[in-house]
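Table S4 entry, DUF38 domain-containing protein.
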Amino acid sequence: MGNSLAWFSSAPQDDFPLVSEQITFNQSLGIQPNSPITLIRVSGKLENRTESLALELEFDEPSATIKKLIRIDYKPRLPSGCLVEWYQDSTFKEKVLDNQTFSDALYESLDIILRRQKSPLETFEVNFPVSNFYVSGSTDRLPVAMDLLNNIKKSLEFRRHPLQVENLIVKESGGSQLLKILPFLDAAILKSIDIEDPRRAYDFYQLPLVVILDQWKNARKLRIENYRMVMSVEQLKHFDEIHLDYWEFSVEDVVELKKAFLKSYGSKTHWKLMLPEFTDNSNLQEELIDKFKNPFYVETPEEGRKWFFKFEGTMEVLSIQLTSRHLSLERIAMEKVPEEGRKFIQFDSETQINY
């Protein structure tokens, strides 16, 4: 059976042949046969009131000094077809596919890739920033994003082994689609999870079915942007790096995070918890002073207040910083603590490790 990738070869511009699937995927794109795919990015955009989709693939060719990026755009073409455009370096090709929607054409290509991918991906990204992709203009079809994500789930379910991905990035409105991808990734390979709402609506985001997955529990980095998070310290404290917009936390939560950081055997590096805009953090500051004693007052107001806690057996300290915009916990070298701030370094016996 032919597919919409088939004509991405060295054929003349006006004569794109459909080749059988026996021809290797890499050869159909003009890529060396033994070049693994390291990045898959599926994205959508709205331009001049017209939706379009893009599939980006990055290949690591053994003989190349830099990775090769290929971009394929899929655009609707009235009345019933689509226009496919292919970009690689300075090469550009295009072809009209009749009787095939632009989303079906992209998925036909993506399905082949997802089912056959064997080597670990550095990044798998799904990016649907436009709300129109969630509104169907047809009575017999799902919205473009929903339909495509359902199909991605089917491809991942078809695989004999979980897809190996180091970094997962999901940018979509509403945050409800993560479960169509995350459970089908290899929990032993996944390192980071990046979730973002491109609308910047700051909706409340709950992950009750996500936080119980091994993929969540084994990941080391977490970034969630433009959502208000609803989760417990227990669901967060295993991460080595965190950036959250916005997690409404209490002083008790900060105490628990501090304990987790000081017991981390050197793995944790940086947690940043953004505060909602116009938050009055004076009460939080007073509560932290009650718990952590007087902070170090830095000269620059925007740098806020800092508390320092010594890591036992090292020349490192935990810096807890409260500003008008965020609370951060960071492992830093002792030498980075200002001279006048070193008298504020505390030793917390309750949270130190018995070696």
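Confidence is low (pLDDT under 50) at residues 9-23, 351-355.
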